[in-house]
Amino acid sequence: MTTVSRETMQLEAYATLLRKWNPTINLVAPATLPNLEARHIADSLQLARTAEDAVGDWLDIGSGGGLPGIVIAVSRPDLSVSLLESDKRKCSFLRSAVRELGLENVKIINERIEQAGPQSASNVSARALAPLPLLLSYVSRHLAPDGTAWLMKGRNWRSEVDDARKDWSFDLCTHKSQTDEEAVILQITGIRHA
Ligand SMILES: C[S@@+](CC[C@H](N)C(=O)[O-])C[C@H]1O[C@@H](n2cnc3c(N)ncnc32)[C@H](O)[C@@H]1O
């Protein structure tokens, strides 16, 4: 008999919810729905694996339908996870997902990143939110001074890093994506205005 893990069951339930709500709210690009598990969920899960030693709390900014925030919360029930998202309807979806998956470690903040009170989180993540220079201003508002940013970036990541270095100094460690040849996870610490 095979045993299906709690994590697998919760992620399957999450995929079902995304498919159910997507026609109404557009949580992910409709064309990517057939590949939801690989394109979005496995992509987010690899961040949880990359950040497996992360401690403290976790803030996902511009969380949308909960990528990667919900996946992090499922994978790391030991972490307290906050999802910061300005869109009311997406927050309704997130509340519903949290309830249906039975997640007890998630808080949803329905505000704009620039207006929400500083969260001083130990870890901040973002996926498909903004170019790195702007993203670092968002992150620096909410990251604790000794915290770590985990930023999921596509093929233009090198030029975004070069641009960001004009205004910011930071320590960078890159992790190649397992799900997309050209993508990376940027692990960033010590963010300061240059
Ligand atoms: C392209 S979506 C990406 C969503 C999710 N991270 C993903 O990978 O599927 C960007 C999300 O960020 C939210 N967003 C954009 N600017 C924001 C801001 N200034 N404050 C809060 N949320 C914001 C949008 O409402 C949207 O849900």
Automatic annotation (TrEMBL):
Localization per Swiss-Prot or TrEMBL: Cytoplasm
A Pfam family matched in the record: GidB
Keyword set, alphabetical order: Cytoplasm, Methyltransferase, rRNA processing, S-adenosyl-L-methionine, Transferase
One MF term in the entry's GO annotations: rRNA (guanine-N7-)-methyltransferase activity
Any single GO CC term annotated in Swiss-Prot or TrEMBL for this entry: cytosol
InterPro entries assigned: rRNA_ssu_MeTfrase_G, SAM-dependent_MTases_sf
Binding site for S-adenosyl-L-methionine: G62, L67, I113, E114, R127
EC supergroup of this enzyme: transferase
Catalyzed reactions: guanosine(527) in 16S rRNA + S-adenosyl-L-methionine = N(7)-methylguanosine(527) in 16S rRNA + S-adenosyl-L-homocysteine
This protein's record includes keyword Cytoplasm: yes
HAMAP family reported in the protein's UniProt record: 16SrRNA_methyltr_G
Family as reported in the entry's similarity comment: Belongs to the methyltransferase superfamily. RNA methyltransferase RsmG family.
Record's function text: Specifically methylates the N7 position of guanine in position 527 of 16S rRNA.
Name of the featured protein: Ribosomal RNA small subunit methyltransferase G
Originating organism: Paracoccus shanxieyensis
Gene: rsmG
